[in-house]
Amino acid sequence: MSEQRKLAPSDRASVRPALRDRLLAAASRHNAPFLLVLVFCAVAVVGGFVIRDLQAANAEAETMYAGAVHGLKRIGELQYDAQETRRATLYALTTSDSNLQVEYADRSRNADQRVKDAILEYTRQAKRPAEIALATRLSQDWGNYLTVRDEVLASILEGSNKEAVSRDLSGGVPSFERVRKDLNDVKALYDEDASQRLANVVATSHRSALRLIGILGFTFLFSSAAVWAIQRSRMLNAIQLAKLQMEFVASVSHELRTPLAVMSSAADNIADGLVEGKAELRKYGGVLQNQSRRMSGLVDEILLFASTEDGKNRYVLQPLAVSRIIESVVASSEALTQGEGFVIVQHIDSALPPVMGDLSGISQCLQNLIGNAVKYSGDSRWIGIRASTGPAEHAPGQEVRISVADRGIGIDRSEIEQIFDPFYRSPRINAAQIHGTGLGLALAKRIAEAMGGRLSVVSELSEGSTFTLHLRIAKGEDLQTATGSRSASSSHS
Amino acid sequence: MPMRRLTAFAALLALAMGLRADVGAAPSASLEPPPEQAALLEPLAIVVNRSNPVNGLTSSDLHKIFLGARSHWTPDRRITLVMREPGEAERKTILRDVCGMTEGQFKTHLLHGLFTGEILVSPKILASPMGARKFIYNVPGAIGYLRVSDVDDTVKVLRIDELLPNDRGYKLRVDTRQAGK
Question: What is the rounded average pLDDT of the residues A278-291?
């Protein structure tokens, strides 16, 4: 019930920074370059869209202007040719030379043919009902005018100028006036269309500009947010690292102080002559030996971790029998488990193939995992060790898996990804006063990866954890190389 | 009308000063040319506007039309005569074979007709066969003449005495040796 209750405002406030920190942590994990690449990709994609948009607007504008120029030219030519038809007809009136009159008639007919062609073209291209109706009307009116024009021309050529003028005034002028009006309507319709197109272009241009501004604003904000996140995550990382190092120093100091105190106390007792007899002395010697070994182990672990920090691979990989290594590691860990009531259950497949690895590396890795299980197994005091083969997850073929399981306190899901970070110590562990340096799992992971393997974990809170070391199986060429180098070294010796 | 008569008189005076009068000369006989001459003679087509419903004329009709005795195709469609300039071979052929006149006689006849009002409109003079063809194309009542090689589908060729220019026995032929095409 309490888990299902609604979040109080204070809870929400506490959740929000946690979410932010998680995002920042994610940013940190996925690294600044990745974020920058993400920003670049986003900007590139959006920029591509904007460029395409602008190009489309430009193309539309170009088409509109080209169309406008062409359209106006055609309308201008149409008007000119219509005028020329009439003009040439009337020029014929100005002369009595039949040759010249025929020439003018010819000019008039050529011009009227051009007008007919232009009207035909206009009719062909007419799409809107108004355009189609106008094209039909213009064609009819032009035909009517040409009928009168032919009569006028005939009268002029016959020498009946008076009759020609009379016919022109009675029929030619009104019919040409209708044509002129039609041509004006064509122009008006074209202007209307051009205005509409211009409005479209302006709207497209406006839209493009707004999009561009929006994109630039978005890019700026997104970039700023990314940079802020990167800087913030770096700062938090630095703080976290410093905090971890401080904790590490404190933890190491504490870990060193305990055996030192025991050793100092034992030494004081011996020096003060409080230890009497061989048996007492042996007991104190044993205490000094154990504590000095514990200190030595701790120092070795720190040095080993420091040596892996530079990322250099110091392991010599060779085919190894896993079962023997496990036996050896379990035997060497008896000091930890004996006397504490631990039960170690082993399931080692009998036909395990040899793996490619380094003896000391695998041993160290398993020791750390067993030590980890001892520390966090809680009251169950149960450790399970299993070695088997299974399909490799990140490569074709099979792999050998060595699992170390406990039935202890388990790991919170939110911490799963952090437990392999150096110096990381869970707040729950600190609260439970379980001592450690926070290096064991980090070291085990580095060793596993240095040997071409990996370390995985499955855990449920309060149910326990299972850490699995995945190792590559030695193949035929690995075995041949190993055999060859072994025989070479023996012959050399 | 007085102005028209004055113009006609001035033209008559000019002709009388520049040309030898040979009015009354008889029209030449229109006999079939011998074969060796036929190769040098090109038929001369009588052409009208394509809208003209007339398809053929007799020699007599043609004579009347070219001399201005007949001025209308129908009561509301007058005849406009199209001729080439003086000196052209086609004109000579028409004057000789249709009008039965020389150039001078024709001009005199024309001026006389215009002066007296018997001829309403003088023939239209075109400088080239193309001009003549275009004129006829533009004027519904026009009639003129063209060498067969100058004829196209913008004008209509008339039958003369039921004969087309390329028919055997067609009389109007122009001498291709003469200049003036």
Answer: 86
Question: pLDDT-based confidence at B178, cuts 50/70/90?
Answer: low
Q: What are the Cα distances from residue B131, in Å, to A251, B110, B146, B173?
A: 121, 22, 11, 20
What is the nearest CA distance from A146 to chain B, expressed in angstroms?
Answer: 12
> Contact B134/A150, CB-based, under 8 Å?
no
- Residue A318 pairs in a beta bridge with A357
Is pLDDT of A285 > 50? Answer: yes
Is B121 close to A153, i.e. CB distance below 8 A?
no
Q: Which residues of A touch B135 (CB under 8 A)?
A: 98, 101-102, 157
Kindly report which listed range (A1-15, A316-330, A334-348) carries the lowest average pLDDT score. Answer: A1-15
CB contact under 8 A, A158 and B135: no
pLDDT of res. A437: 73
Closest Cα to residue B137, out of B86, B80, B178? B80
| Residue written as token pair 């001078």 | B104
Higher-confidence residue: B73 or A379? Answer: B73
Q: How far is CA A137 from CA A118, A122, A164, A180, A417, in A?
A: 14, 12, 26, 12, 82
Residue A491 has pLDDT above 60, yes or no: no
pLDDT at B106 > cutoff 70: yes
- DSSP-based helix, strand, coil % in chain A, nearest 5: 70, 10, 20
Q: Residue A106 and residue B136: Cα distance in Å, rounded?
A: 12
Q: Which residue of B has its CA nearest to A99?
A: B126
Other CB atoms within 10 Å distance of the CB of residue A417: 13
The DSSP secondary structure of A147-186, one letter per residue, reads: HHHHHHHHHHHHT-HHHHHHHIIIIIHHHHHHHHHHHHHH
Contact A326, A385 (CB under 8 A): yes
Amino acid found at A345 = V
Find residue A406's DSSP bridge partners.
Answer: A383, A465
Q: Give the CA distances from residue A393 to residues A138, A161, A282, A397, A472, in Å, rounded to whole numbers and listed in that order.
A: 80, 106, 53, 9, 11
CB-CB contact of A406 with A419 (8 Å): no
Question: What beta strand segments (E) does A275-315 contain?
Answer: none
Q: Report the sign of the C-alpha dihedral through residues B159, B163, B167, B173, in that order.
A: negative
Measured at the CA of A350, the angle between CA A349 and CA A353, to 5 degrees, comes to 85
Q: For residues A16 and B99, give the distance between their C-alpha atoms in angstroms, rounded to a whole number.
A: 121
How far is Cα B105 from Cα B95, in angstroms, rounded to an integer? 9
| Torsion angle, alpha carbons of A217, A221, A223, A224, to 10 | 140
CA angle A465, A409, A23 (to 5 degrees): 75
> Which of A91-95, A443-447, B7-11, B30-34 has the least mean pLDDT?
B7-11
| Burial (Cβ within 10 Å: 0-12, 13-18, ≥19) of residue A17 | exposed
Give the pair of three-digit tokens for residue A279: 């048996």
For residue B111, the distance in angstroms to the closest alpha carbon of chain A comes to: 17
Summarize pLDDT for B129-168 with one digit per residue, the tens.
999 999 999 999 999 999 999 999 999 999 999 999 999 8
- How much of chain A exceeds pLDDT 70, in percent? 88
